[in-house]
Amino acid sequence: MSDIENVKLLLSWKDEYTASSKPQVCLLCTDLSLDLVTIQRYYHVRWNIETGYRDFKELLGFDQYQLLSFHGIERFWAIQFLTQNFLECQRQEWMKADAKPHAG
Description:
This protein is mostly helical and 104 residues long. Helix content is 51%, strand content 10%. Strands 1-2 form a two-stranded antiparallel ribbon.
């Protein structure tokens, strides 16, 4: 860290800070104009993007699929994105159904 100039380092603890506790989250930001809340909001959005990419690669098998033709690659991407969007829409519907009060 000592070699990097003009950065903000955010350390976050789940519980109270003690001298022996380790931070749960460490964030490094090179935009000094951002306040702490904005950095955390950006990180939250970025985390959703990164986990989405990880799921896309691992769960949908994109990390193991190889194509040689550009047309084949385009088709595969289209299928992958359609599948991911369908699953996300289904997840949103399930979340709405779980949020509705149940008669009882």
